[in-house]
Amino acid sequence: MTTHPIVPQPKVENWAYPFKAKGGQEVTDPQLYQQALAQARGGTYLLGSNGLWHGGVHFDEGTAAFLDQSRIHCIADGEVVAYRIDDKVHRFVPDAHTMSEGKTYSTSFVLVRHRLEAPQLADSDETPPSLVFFSLYMHLLDWAGYQADPALPRPAFWGNDRYRVQTQGGRLNVRQAPRSTAPVQAELDNGSRIRIAGNGAWCQIIEILDNGLTLRPGHTQVGLGYVARRYLKAEATPKVQNTVVVLDQPFPIKAGALLGHPGLYEGQQQIHLETFSCDDLPAFIERSRAWAARLPDSDKTLLKIHAGASKLITHRPDIDAKHPPRISDPGLQVGVDLILGQAQLDALPAADKIVIPPQNTGGICTPEQRWWHLKGLLADAEGNPIDGWLCEQEFITSRHSPWEWVDYETIQDSTAPRSRLAYKMSNLDLLTSDEKIHYRSEIIKGSQSPIILKFGKLIDENEDRVLSDKELKKFLSKPWLAQKLQKTIALCDSEWNWDPEKWSFLDELLTAEAENENKEWENEKQKIKILSWWKQASSVESLSTLAKCWHIQGLDLKSHFLKRRIHPIVTVLGERVELDFLLKHQGKNLEDKDVREAAAELGCEPGLVYAIAKQESSHSSFIEIDGEKIPSILYERHHFKRLARNESLESSHQDIYGPPYRRAKKLKNGTYIDTKTLQQVQLIDTYGPSGSFQYERLIRAYRLNEDAALQASSWGKFQIMGFNYKAAGYETVKDFTKAMSKGDGEHIKAFLRFAKRNATLLRGLRTRHFETIAQGHNGKNWKEINPDYAKNIEKFYNEYNNN
Fold this sequence. Notes:
The chain is α+β, with helices and mostly antiparallel strands and about 800 residues long. The chain has 4 domains: about 20-155 and about 240-295 and about 560-565, Glucose Permease (Domain IIA) (Distorted Sandwich); about 160-235, SH3 type barrels; about 300-400, no CATH class; about 570-800, no CATH class. It is about 30% helix and about 25% strand. The protein contains 26 helices and 44 strands. Strands 2, 5, 8, 9, 18, 20, 21, 32, 33 and 34 form a 10-stranded mixed sheet that branches. α15 crosses α16 and α24 (about 770-780) crosses α26. The longest helix is centred in the C-terminal third of the chain and has 14 residues, at about 790-800. It starts with 19 loop residues before the first strand and ends with a helix.
């Protein structure tokens, strides 16, 4: 029986891969994971190396050549419902009298619950089909591992009240009351550890865990005081150790969030990732397919390539957008079926994607053609790999919605471990003739396993009925074959539910002599028992008490439902943030030709346009965070204050809401001094460093007031303030910021429109009057903001003309 939460949890909106690529980049191509899993040392989905059932996949030394396995991330939006953290790694010592350390294995895990829901139909109040599923991350790092390396980030869902002071200055002010205007009674050294209470921007210190507190001269301590939360870094610790923790209140978690780090399994780092559902999954798929028939064509993000119909055009060096392939060109017939997601197609290099727009020549209309250069993904009818250009064509390729679950199959496999093992041992000639007769019925049952019947012949090339690691790796290295395995959903008993009777049935098989105990097998049973967690987590909503569930290949599920991402996602404030007010970078760098064309349209010299761009952005109009190019910005808190008009923010958010920032210089000792008065100032009162720091401030402001935050920042090569979005030719400020994210071409278009509507700036450009240009671009108070602005414009103008 499966029970569901009374209040439905939020549905999955975002997906992520559990590990980044080897170099630390985000993974965009599912083929990388397919290549990695083909090299895993064991733990294949549905097929364990010992002949027993295996519901997940392993990431180990074999996959480490492709992936950065230093930390593991959540694969989809959801909520952590249970976890277990060992105090230290478990060991089995074969003989207490030997020096051997024995085998290591971690029982630490995290269980995340997710809800998959189809899109709502337009003009309908019908409830879309939905499915509750879980992702399990097993063999995580033990608590001793975190204590040995304090620098390791800790999962937020552990949750507690321990924090470490983390400031960019030397110390943190401790105030007598929870507000910025309260007297400072003491200071905490950077790095000090404390316990706190309270959930707001200011929190009360309830314990100081080291000696980092210094009283201010002339002050006495009135309680332990209050500190600003933004200068504290959480240092989470597990609630308890060595036991399953079922959270009273599930912890919401986003795709890509940290779940933990790999632990040890038999002396090596290894993660077992498993995805399963206790719902009636076939019924869900049936309803989902009916629902998909009513969804718009825009939802069809999957491309199916059909065996015998599709053709790959042979690549030539001269093929490009100006010389695209033709359907009549020579090529090879595709002999296998394969489904590719639009996100995977979009991730192809620019040179491997060609779009030929629709044409109307002599009254003959030809539709748009999309070509994809596919390498290492397809084969001919004999199974030989082929590469080439594929053209999307109606009746030859087909488009599908993920909710159609195209080519997915469900099977039920209730084969007992005893039968699976007997079949495996018989094939390996590990049974005597008498034993083969004795276990004949079990061997037959094992041979009739639905999983073996479905995949045995595909994998077993030499037909010896032994699915060797070599054969399995070869099978998984072929995308068109691996996808058949990935799209099989199997109903089986969970391996995480300890049933002593089920495992004791194997005693006779694994003990050669009835009177002798097989110590290795007894140890193995003990390990299975300790690894099990299902019964301890039985109170988790939607987890079946019968421990029978539908297993899904989670990584295929991710690539199946992954939407084409149009917004950049970057790490800001220690978390992955989707910048929904930007689009992914699309354009090229600004060229001299663009500058000259803009100057001609404005009726001014090109050197003046160049000078403004150089002064405003030093030609660095974009910055890069996590491989994403996003426009450079400068956040202005006084404009946010003027636009947001929320006086309560004055005390709680001083660094992003208040008077104008002061221009300051950072000294070698980490302190800041005002460039005009040479007085020491705090970082919160300065502009601070460029780059990601500006986005940290912007994001915090954006979460308080979206439009005000975007308008309070200057953007791109010409650093046009967001509140000038209408003058720059846009209906909304988000239209403006999205355009700024595309490339320098949009920056100069916006500058042209802005300059044409700015009489002062236009006059300064046409008369080559540098102070008028400064006033037009920066306002009447430009000398107070930057007294050297006009001189710099003149300098850069001369620089351009002297080149």
